[in-house]
Amino acid sequence: MARSHAELFHVTRAYEELMRRYQRTLFNVCARYLGNDRDADDVCQEVMLKVLYGLKNFEGKSKFKTWLYSITYNECITQYRKERRKRRLMDALSLDPLEEASEDKTPKPEEKGGLDRWLVHVNPIDREILVLRFVAELEFQEIADIMHMGLSATKMRYKRALDKLREKFAGVTET
User: Fold this and answer.
1) Out of 24, 76, 78, 161, which could bridge 126 as a Cys pair, Cβ 3.0 to 4.6 Å?
2) What is residue 96's three-state secondary structure?
3) DSSP 9-65
4) pLDDT digits (tens, 9 = 90+) for 107-147
5) 37, 34, 13: which is closest to 24 by C-alpha?
6) pTM of the model
7) String of b and e for 82-95 (b: at least 16 CB within 10 Å)?
8) Under a CB-based contact definition with an 8 Å cutoff, are residues 116 and 134 in contact?
9) How many helices and strands, by DSSP H and E, does the chain display?
10) What is the pLDDT of residues 87-108, one digit of tens each?
């Protein structure tokens, strides 16, 4: 019994240190990907629980950071899909089809600041690549591993997303 308490203390301390080190960036990645703090907070909680329970299975074949962001990416995808299904259901149940048709659900770039202002204009996969690169500051190989893509495909999507943003906002940055 004493041994299990001692081991639990060490595991808990290690987990607390890992979460202290990565929590802020983890939350920022989730918030940027999902677009709101409430969902980001929920996903962060899920990720932390998965890390806590999965820590003993971490084999060290990749960096811890890569493993952590793989879990984060997968949880963000799951949450994004849940929210999308919810929106579709709400739209389907809408009593006023004219209101639904006139409503623009895409946030305007002026409504958000910083990186969020730009991210609404790229698809979710490219958005995640940009977030992992700029917010989590990961290397391309780490991003490729997290997203289960080839390195060249990751770099190409990154370049195309940046080109799309440059083209879309060429006049905005010069003002």
Assistant:
1) 161
2) coil
3) HHHHHHHHHHHHHHHHHHHHHHHHHHSSHHHHHHHHHHHHHHHHHHGGG---SS-HH
4) 343 444 566 778 888 898 998 898 898 888 899 999 999 99
5) 37
6) 0.61
7) eeeeeeeeeeeeee
8) no
9) 9, 0
10) 765 665 554 444 433 444 433 4
- DSSP 3-state of 94: coil
Query: What's the fold here for domain 2-169?
Result: Butyryl-CoA Dehydrogenase, subunit A; domain 3 (1.20.140)
Whether the CB-CB separation of 144 and 73 falls below 8 Å is answered with: no
Helix axis angle for 64-93 and 37-54, nearest 10°, is 140
CA distance 163 to 175: 19
Amino acid identity for residue 21 in this structure: R
* Segments making up each domain of the chain, as ranges: 2-169
